[in-house]
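Example 3.2
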Amino acid sequence: MININPDAYLDFSVPWTIAFNYKIDRNRLISEGTDTIVLTQTLSINGDLSLSKNWKIEFGTNYDFTRKQFSYSSINFTRNLHCWEASFNWIPFGYMKSYNIQINVKSSLLQDLKLQRRRTWYDTGVR
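Structure, written as tokens:
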């Protein structure tokens, strides 16, 4: 049936991965006669998707249930350009908000040959 009607079926052969991680931390804080128990609950989601043999997307995010907010999140795009490689790495929000765009030669002999533009979380231009 698939060979007769190839347009009627979805191609699930696109390589991808996804991982979920749930973590509970219990800490006991003792200071000046007070004894406090602090519970932290976090859900992490990480994965990647190869859109084609030359395009890849990687992502990751964490949600803190105690603070009711997202913590570290990132998105990375990579493009294979035969002998070259282009990448865009982005942390869209939070304390370490930043981006990095880079085009570089794949050869380890020429690893210093690259073009890069970045704004890191400690730069004054990113708020």
